[in-house]
Amino acid sequence: MGHEHESECGSQDCSSRPQEPDHPMMLDGDVVPGDTALMLRCLFEEFLRNGSTPAELAAMCANDEFQALAAARHVLGIERVESILREAAGAVGVQRFVEREALPCFECGESNQFRSEPPARERGV
Fold first, then answer.
1. Which residues, including other chains, have CB under 8 Å from residue 117's CB and lie 6 or more apart?
2. Domain of 91?
3. Number of Cβ atoms within 10 Å of the Cβ of 105
4. Is the pTM of this model over 0.85?
């Protein structure tokens, strides 16, 4: 199912539009001019802050499907990539999240943000 907006793509259904060489339908990553080590460090820090673990990032670097990380690995070498990952993980640390449902207070009916479940006596235990 494509979007029906004739003015933007010239047809009723964009999904039926043929692929054009200058507009590939696949992401094509490459190394750009700049400090590859610094860019990799920034990528690692962003992923770590969003909850990825160093082990997950190391696996992503070994997988050519993650083009930016794989390109950095080819340019810098695996030892340097692992060193940058260790430095970034040491600086950022490990993000941990705990999700708790705020249950209403059974006495007054207001939300109690500090209780994740009713006490045992209220649960019938």
1. 103, 123
2. 29-97
3. 12
4. no
